Amino acid sequence: MAQIKKRNTASSGRGQREAEEAFIAAAEAPSVESLSVEQRVSKRAEGRYFGLISYRGTEEQKALIDFAAKEAGLSKQKLIEEILMPELEKRYGEKFEQR
């Protein structure tokens, strides 16, 4: 006769507790519509980064981006991100959430 194993349905420690806390925090988080543009940009910046696009430009445009990044003391990636993402969020962020 096969033996029946009972599952332990009690929370299984730290991992389960962290998952429950993350679920509760997400439920209590304000909706995207109530966040400012800066807060939405910051929220969308959380997570894993990967290549989005390959941007083409002229030699002059490249030189301008190189110069601007050096003047700002930022990487080219960070410079473009700080300009592009807030503008995209202003124009399309709320519509994006409603799709």
UniProtKB/TrEMBL annotation:
Record's keyword terms, sorted: Plasmid
Superkingdom assignment: Bacteria
Name the UniProt record assigns to this protein: ParB
Biological source species: Corynebacterium glutamicum (Brevibacterium saccharolyticum)
Gene: parB
